[in-house]
Specification:
Elements lengths: L8 H9 L1 H11 L10 E2 L17 E4 L5 E4 L5 E2 L2 E2 L1
Antiparallel strand pairs: 1-5, 2-3, 3-4
């Protein structure tokens, strides 16, 4: 199981450029029933330890810029925001 505390370069690009927000924004702008929206970043303040019995649960680690990142056993980085 890869519990590395590094963020892959292509993942960092997605996090940096907020591509998730851009994609969702494009979709929401085309929805006639939605008049306006705004995104707020969510940052995890609590440390979550790796559950070695269940790797599909998420855990946190600090990246090289000391930002808390959520990850799970599928090496999926979680980007949370709400509107």
């Amino acid at each position: 199981m890869n519990s590395s505390k590094t963020v892959r370069p292509h993942d960092r690009l997605y996090l940096k450029e907020n591509r998730y927000k851009k994609t969702l924004s494009k979709f929401l702008k085309n929805e006639k029933s939605i008049k306006n929206f705004k995104f707020y970043d969510f940052s995890m303040k609590k440390n979550l330890k790796i559950n070695h019995k269940d790797y599909l649960r998420s855990w946190t680690f600090n990246d090289d810029k000391n930002k808390k990142i959520l990850m799970n056993g599928t090496n999926l980085l979680h980007c949370f925001f709400y509107s």
